[in-house]
Amino acid sequence: MHKLHEVILSFSDAMWQFFHTQVDDLVLFEGWKIDSAGSMVLACAITAVFGITFEFVKWARKKVVADLKLRQDPNASPTLLQALFTASHLVGTFFFALQLTIGYLLMLIVMTFSVWLGLSVVVGATLGFIIFGDRE
Q1: What is the pLDDT of residues 50-95, one digit of tens each?
Q2: How many CB atoms lie within 10 A of CB 18?
Q3: Angle subtended by helix axes 37-71 and 115-132, to nearest 10
């Protein structure tokens, strides 16, 4: 129990409690440490790509589910249980879980309180929306 207490204290000391522009940071995993300007630029680039990926997954979920629904028999009236196990619902559920996971990871990146990483999330998601956003 004593060792756990030391780990929790050492981890909490490393976390920022306010927005900052410092290069000294820890992102998502213990191994993803930012300790130089170069590692911050790389982390920002990875984060922006992650934001683009978030928007891609949203777009892919809508497109794939719509395509699968077109292949279903329009005259079929499945029961609730059957509807839960259609290909479109199962694939849509998978994509939703992936989208949710990426979204929460992006949220955790913003919660590092690094201005640069937060801006990277916004820039990446915005670029992703420009590329994959709703087109009507």
Answers
A1: 999 999 999 998 888 888 777 766 676 777 777 677 777 888 899 9
A2: 5
A3: 30
DSSP string, 54-117: HHHHHHHHHHHHHHHHHHS-TT----HHHHHTSHHHHHHHHHHHHHHHHHHHHHHHHTT-BHHH
Residues near 122 by Cβ (< 8 Å), separated by ≥ 6? 51
Residue found under tokens 């820890």: 26
- Structure pTM? 0.75
- Residue found by looking up tokens 């990483």 in the block: 117
What is the rounded distance in angstroms from the CA atom of residue 102 to the CA atom of residue 107? 9
Residues in the chain: 136
